[in-house]
């Protein structure tokens, strides 16, 4: 099921990693919580976690997406998970999908910050790591327990869920 | 990646679903927390959850395992996730593995009860649902982010992790 | 120590009761969490909880403060706790302090929303209910484990703590 | 209201400080969580925390109670909070009450371990610290938002609440 090869996890920010600033009442980024989450999940995969940026995906630039694509290309791992804001996850997936065809890349994120206790982040991270181990090369979005190919997914902003563009 | 078919989730108890009784100071079972966990994970898979029993897996009988196997066989779904205590997960997996060859069945559990806040359960459930969607027919154990075939896994009780019996 | 009389708890909003909107990524008010918090605290005081408004205290108007003062005056209880945003807690305390001299009124709040898991709200609510039972008539602010008379307190916005204006 | 003097907090164990051992599935003591709880409560009282023992109060010996009494007597602080298991809190309170008459001593505890997320501990700690600041010399039990004099309290084991022995 798994090739037991190492998985690289890139953190880019998004709701996943937002925190509450008690002094200002604003949400902000400090650092990724991926290490805490992997510890909580008692994950024993061979992983390397790397934080590329900590941005709200609405503020992610073309240059940021370029950087993510480059880092996926030069990574020695064939299996990659990317944590990402949900608002533009499909755009980044499309940039990667058009360019990277020989690696299994799974983007995931959260609708509620991990630090808020009631987050979907830990569940999503679990699905993303499992999909990354089992799916063939391609770029995917893992949200809501499901996995979508990059060219068939959109975020339904009214419902806050990801759905397939394909006729079902 | 997924056949978009319905997944059946059987709850059998285990640490996963244990709760703290504030009056007695003991751990006990009330009912499964799977519905709460799926809501927290914002899961939108086509699932049906069914509680078969609520037992500590150290107290699971041959008859209990027989029941689980029967229910897997008669289920109309080809993809099944079973939540189970970790102490005898490999035994139940072996019973199922010897008998069910045409369905994808993934057992998972937790080392810390879901209700205790610091549980690996949500992460494990995410991995199990993803593995159930993507793996070919067979019986598997999903723990620690990894997925093991039923005939190659054991729980390392000193470390509290699942490991492969295969030479690596 | 207590007259065992009923305590009235007025909710007015503030960080205490803010929630995270997963669709918009914004904080908002839905309803007070006081009932949940009192259940969690296993509180068995004779209490009546009433929600007067759900506002950020930076947006609390003179008219809102007037309403709070009136409701304190007409309440049949002599001991009152008010949950309030921290940013203008001292202003509301001053309005009440200048007018209500025969009741024990304790304002409290939180620096982190209760629903975020890592909130000081439950601790503060505990202190406020205890101070309300034991202090003589007067208007007080209970934050950071301490209790301040209304005319000697200010919020230190840099540190996010309440401190006494009195020379120590 | 407060003499602003330093409060000494003695930890003795109890449900308050129990943790879950993921390897054995048993509850156990590691160290007190008081520092974490005071940080979460953003407490800025002048406190000194000292762990005297980490025991289930059902296993607290006469010698343990003797030690607690001695440490209360020799403490330079006049205001003391003791975290304690709920099962024999009233016995320890009686030992202290018969001997210490010039200090304000408040015992508190929890029905659910702090580390389990759904604990009453933080609320109780808040009430205990507030009662310790405001009550006159005496030995008290602070539970369920209420404060009881040591010679009038009992734990109702069926309901899991503390109640007064006095006719109401």
List keywords for this structure.
homotetramer, 168 residues, alpha/beta, six-stranded mixed β-sheet, two-stranded antiparallel ribbon
Q: What are the secondary-structure elements of chain A, in order, as H or E?
A: EEEHEHEHEHEEEE
Shape of chain A: globular
Overall residue-averaged pLDDT value of chain A: 95
Please identify the oligomeric state.
homotetramer
User: Ranges of chain A with pLDDT <50 over ≥5 residues?
Assistant: none
Biggest contact = A-B, 40 and 40 residues
What does this entry look like structurally?
The longest helix of chain A has 14 residues, at 121-134. A six-stranded mixed β-sheet of chain A has the order 4-1-5-6-7-8, with helices on both faces. Chain A has a two-stranded antiparallel ribbon with strand order 2-3. Chain A has a two-stranded antiparallel sheet with strand order 9-10. The two termini of chain A are 27 Å apart. Chain A contains four helices and ten strands; from the N terminus they run E-E-E-H-E-H-E-H-E-H-E-E-E-E. By secondary structure, chain A is α/β, with parallel strands linked by helices. In chain A, strand 5 (79-83), helix 3 and strand 6 (104-108) form a beta-alpha-beta unit.
Q: TL;DR?
A:
The first copy, chain A, is of the alpha/beta class and 168 residues long. Helix content of chain A is 26%, strand content 30%.
Helix/strand layout:
Four copies of one chain form a homotetramer.
Chain A: E1 7-13, E2 18-20, E3 27-29, H1 34-40, E4 47-55, H2 62-74, E5 79-83, H3 89-97, E6 104-108, H4 121-134, E7 138-143, E8 146-149, E9 153-156, E10 161-164
Parallel strand pairs in A: 1-4, 1-5, 5-6, 6-7
Antiparallel strand pairs in A: 2-3, 7-8, 9-10
């Amino acid at each position: 099921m798994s090739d037991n090869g190492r998985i690289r996890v890139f953190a880019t920010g998004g709701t996943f990693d937002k925190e509450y600033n008690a002094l200002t009442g604003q949400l902000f980024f400090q650092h990724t919580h991926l290490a805490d989450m992997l510890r909580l999940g008692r994950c024993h995969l061979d992983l390397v976690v790397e934080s590329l940026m900590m941005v709200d995906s609405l503020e992610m630039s073309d240059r940021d997406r370029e950087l993510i694509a480059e880092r996926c290309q030069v990574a020695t791992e064939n299996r990659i998970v990317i944590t990402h804001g949900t608002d533009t996850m499909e755009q980044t997936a499309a940039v990667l999908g058009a360019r990277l065809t020989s690696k299994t890349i799974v983007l995931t994120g959260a609708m509620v910050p991990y630090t808020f206790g009631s987050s979907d982040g830990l569940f999503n991270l679990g699905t993303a790591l499992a999909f990354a181990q089992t799916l063939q090369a391609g770029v995917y979005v893992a949200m809501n327990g499901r996995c979508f190919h990059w060219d068939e997914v959109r975020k339904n902003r009214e419902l806050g869920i990801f759905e397939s563009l394909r006729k079902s």
